[in-house]
Amino acid sequence: MLGDLKDQPVDKIIALIQAYREDPRPVKVDLGVGVYRNPEGVTPVMRAVKAAEKRLWEQETTKSYTGLAGEPDFHHAMANLVLADTVEHERLAFAATPGGTGAIRQGAELIRMAAPGATIWLSAPTWPNHPSILKYLGIPVREYRYFDEESRGVDFSGMLADLESVAPGDVVLLHGCCHNPTGANLNGPQWEELADLMLSKGAVPFVDIAYQGFGDGLDDDAGGVRLLASRFPEMLVAASCSKNFGIYRERTGILMALAGDRATQKLAQSNLTFLNRQNYSFPPDHGARLVTMILADPGLRDDWMAELEAVRRGMLDLRRQLADTLRDMTGSDRFAFIAQHRGMFSRLGATPEQVAAMREDRGIYMVSDSRINIAGLNRTSVPVLAEAMVKAGM
Fold this sequence. Notes:
It contains 15 helices and eleven strands. By secondary structure, the chain is α/β, with parallel strands linked by helices.
């Protein structure tokens, strides 16, 4: 049986991580893996998380199972964080999941159960796990234009033109903020225009919000998803706590399904609970409990928000430094987009050959499409990257 298995393609980012580790050069820069790092190259445990873990260790009395869909306190804490008061929480069904990836997977499973013929529309480009999961599940996929390779911004006219072909009941998967891999985001009026188009087509939004707080702040980053929630009768939201709480290995995420009425909400909740049972039974609880404690305690919440804001501002400073350094080196503002992008990622516009040259010559590791993790830089490595980009002919 096992001998009849087929080799699966190697994940490009995992392969890049391995190549970086095997590079013996003392000076090298890892801009591939999508994990936040501080200036010392460490992914720290946030202060509020440490404090919550200590309280949990002192107060926890059992390691028994949580609920199949997770704990209601976690559900509502995350609904408040992501959606605030834009919808009645009675219209929401929930499934706690192993990370944001688990939320995307459960959302795709729910779509397949509810509307087997629906197509899911993805931005071009998007996070590679989106098409991978959907292809594995056999769900029809189409793409809409999103990134303008010339301006390095959003190709909004192309996006709207492609979404004119959306059929009623189709699902449009959107990045809530800090678009991965490009860093280019929709602005407020564009979210409004997009909502108008999708409503006219009878489309269902599915928002992946994995970096809330990393772009323009917690509330601003949630502006798009809150707008959609306020206008659509139904939508799905997949949220991750890996980045903004720094709990990557705790695998903490949630899927929220917004229903048009109470009866539909109960039906959606029943199906989400069923899907959790089929896939992993009871979801992991440690990270979810930490998040709940932090969001419920004013002191912990304030400290978490302060540290998250420092992380956000640090990445903005690195963006400005890189854009300014490249302007000084080239006498051109063609890299100004780096400072305009938001979140951890930007796509630089290098060819695969230029990416390979930077890796070979200067030990700079990035994905072949030239996506870089801004948080992999520090003030010392920014000029190293800038020099490598110029030398590579960018």
